[in-house]
Amino acid sequence: MRYVEVSPGEVALRRGAPSPLPPGHARVRVAACGLCGSDLHLLRGMVLPRGAAYPVRPGHEVAGVVTELAPDVDRPRPGERVVLHPLDVCGDCAPCRRGQEERCRRGRVLGLQVAGGMADEVVWPARRLVAVGELPLERAAVLADAVATAHHALRLADPGPHGRLCVVGAGGVGGHVVQLARALRPEVEVWAVVRSSASAARLEAMGAGVVLGLEGAAARLRAEAGRFDAVVDFSGTAAGPAEGLAMLEVGGRLVLGSVVDEPIQLGTTVTGMVTRELEVVGCYVSTLEDLRTVADLAREGRIDLSASVSRRLPLERAAEAFDLVERRPPGLVRVVLEP
Q: Which ranges of 102-216 would DSSP assign to H, the alpha helix?
């Protein structure tokens, strides 16, 4: 089988033996695997979490077809079209018992501690697969992160009934926060900060207000639209949190979802945080229930993934795909590799 391998500064296509099939697992023929900012972070070189080491076999946004089941597994059946939830959790630690499995102390991440889906096939726990029916698999792949994580972020933001929400960096994940807010919380007023006119047009069509450019966005938004009950930052920049915090109403909440290895700068003082009773929370991936929810929404046609994939490239052009995500041309949403 072929698979992509990443080391700091290098993307390579390798060949090797298929992975064994442990109890409780399924083998999935990969149809599509998305790339996101965390994959780019691997290429740039990062401090890897416990249990991961370079070279890494990435790919955590994966959709495909089940080809084989371990003897102790009977669902999903071979031939079923599925998307993989990117976390394999223990189910027994305190966060898991509280229903916060994204905080699992012993969790493994697909494409980090376990060989990922930028490959011809992948082996993953059958209980972490979600059926997607007849959804096009290149769109279903982005459900795993770009959409499920957006759903998790929207839950954390919780702008309240008839509240006001701003999404900073409304590209891949952020753009899906906007779409989910319009679908699930139509009474909420939604604004977005974007990099390009193409992204602006896409989000305006969803009914969101839009401002172009991150620098000074908070001041421009306060003048044009006022302050917000919640801000979600997926800008992937060190400047995003400070701009987001400056947009908040008293008692507002800032949700940070980007992987940025720089000291956080909030552009305020402890007094400024305390006297305005502001909250800052992190958003890390999603739960299996988030993924099931967004898969249902996509199958029912309540969210539209037709514009969620910008480019589709074959697996052997993985290095080109990483370069495309690095350059982030205007209007880029998601790049998908198709083995």
A: 137-142, 148-157, 172-184, 197-204
CATH code where residue 303 lies: 3.90.180.10
The dihedral region occupied by 190, where left means phi > 0, alpha psi between -120 and 50, and beta the remainder, is: beta
Distance CA 48, CA 29 (A): 27
The CA–CA distances, whole Å, from 263 to 231, 240, 266 equal 20, 12, 10
Instruction: Indicate if 63 and 189 belong to the same structural domain.
Output: no
335 C-beta neighbours (distance < 10 Å), count: 23
Range of the domain at 175: 149-282
Measured from the Cβ of residue 117, the count of other Cβ atoms closer than 10 Å reads 32
Predicted TM-score (pTM) of the model is 0.94
The pLDDT tens digits of the residues spanning 296-336 come to: 999 999 999 998 998 999 999 999 999 999 988 877 789 99
Q: Give the residues across from 63 on adjacent strands.
A: 32, 83
What single DSSP character describes residue 20?
Answer: P
